[in-house]
């Protein structure tokens, strides 16, 4: 794996659903948690994001959906959101329009 704290030093992460009607206790959520809590993840800044912060300028990422079905548009949008977050950019989306075959 990459640098930083690895699996060996990380315990199972926690999960709380108190604001959503439970489960409430760690013993109730133990079967649901399968990921590790890696403290360095909370402070990690991806390289693209570091660059935009160090240059102190606002950058943008545009998204233009294709004329495909709803699922293709959704997957494209999810990818654009993930890329914008990873690169520290503001996502610009076009005005609302009809999706193909969605009447």
Textual characterization of the structure:
The protein is mostly helical. It is built from 3 helices and 2 strands; from the N terminus they run H-H-E-H-E. The protein has a two-stranded parallel sheet with strand order 1-2. The longest helix has 18 residues, at 70-87. Mean pLDDT is 75; it is low at 1-7.
Fold blueprint:
Layout: H1 26-29, H2 47-54, E1 60-62, H3 70-87, E2 90-92
Parallel strand pairs: 1-2
What are the key terms here?
single chain; 103 residues; two-stranded parallel sheet; 3 helices; disordered N terminus
Helix/strand/pairing category: mainly alpha
Query: Cα distance, first to last residue?
Result: 48 Å
Global geometry: flat
The main sheet comes to:
2 strands, parallel
Low-confidence stretches: 1-7
Q: What proportion of the residues is helical, as a percent range?
A: 25-40%
Tell me the Rg in angstroms: 19 Å
Number of helices: 3
The helix-strand sequence is HHEHE
Q: Which oligomeric form is depicted?
A: single chain
- Could you tell me the strand content as a percent range? 5-15%
Mean pLDDT: 75
- Major β-sheet strand ordering: 1-2
Tally of extended strands? Answer: 2
């Amino acid at each position: 794996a990459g640098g930083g704290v690895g699996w060996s030093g990380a315990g199972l992460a926690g999960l709380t659903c108190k604001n959503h009607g439970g489960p409430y206790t760690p013993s109730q959520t133990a079967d649901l948690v399968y990921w590790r809590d890696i403290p360095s993840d909370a402070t990690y800044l991806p390289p693209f994001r570091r660059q935009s912060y160090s240059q102190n300028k606002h950058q943008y990422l545009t998204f233009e959906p294709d004329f495909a079905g709803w699922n293709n548009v959704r997957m494209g949008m999810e990818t654009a959101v993930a890329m914008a977050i990873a690169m520290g950019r503001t996502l610009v989306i076009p005005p609302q329009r009809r999706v193909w075959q969605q009447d």
